[in-house]
Amino acid sequence: MGTTQLESVPEPKYWHLKTVLSEALDQDFAVGEVLPNERELAARFGVARATLRQALEQLELEGRLQRRRGVGTTVAPPRVGVDVGSAQHGWPGEGADGWEPVDATETVPSAAAVRGLLGTAADQPVHTVRRTRVTQGQPVAAELLYVPAASVPGLSAIDAPAGPARARAVLRELQRLALDGQDRSVELGSARADDAKELDRLPGAPVLLVTTRYFTAAGTAAVSVATYRADTCRLTFGDTGDVQITHDARVAS
Length: 253
Known about the structure:
Blueprint: H1 13-28, H2 38-45, H3 49-61, E1 65-68, E2 72-75, E3 100-107, H4 112-118, E4 126-135, E5 138-148, H5 163-174, E6 181-190, H6 193-198, E7 206-216, E8 219-229, E9 235-237, E10 243-245
Antiparallel strand pairs: 1-2, 3-4, 4-5, 5-8, 6-7, 7-8, 9-10
Helix pairs in contact: 1-3, 2-3
């Protein structure tokens, strides 16, 4: 990469630098290759390190770069295609939905936003099922599925006390209900510490939050909050309105 002076560029310096860096990634670097350190890059392009960081953060958000613990900033591989929605709506865990159950606990949710989505009282117990998703050998998503205890009254703590077995038991009981419908929303967020660890990202890394509510005749039976890596996933919407993640290596989300 050569030296590029940016003082005369009318657009924001970090944005122009992002374009220059993106071209250099295509021409001079291979997937997985580690970039020079910030001091060296800033000197080569004649910019302040703060400007460089803005450009690098934008490239990370667009899926061109990854920050890896103990390694540094590397060129990201192509985005992985992961199907989120389908024409036939179903309960979590039905069929081969790509998720692996990890654990389940019964607690009172501390987040008021979760209680609001579920429509539960502050003291009503809720089963929290944690699941993960791995595609092509890399972790791409972590999910918290909230199921009010009232939705699965037949669940036996004796049969499945903890771990993946407990998670599968909650899912089985949930699937006994008649699903009336669901709704879904998508927003950009930042990875919490626990999700970042599961997804092999740094806390605060950009993520896509897909929130799904599942309805029965009695009301909201469950809420899923799935955290997808924004650097590996791109959301598209089909004719049915379902949400899908499709393969695209070079298009920003």
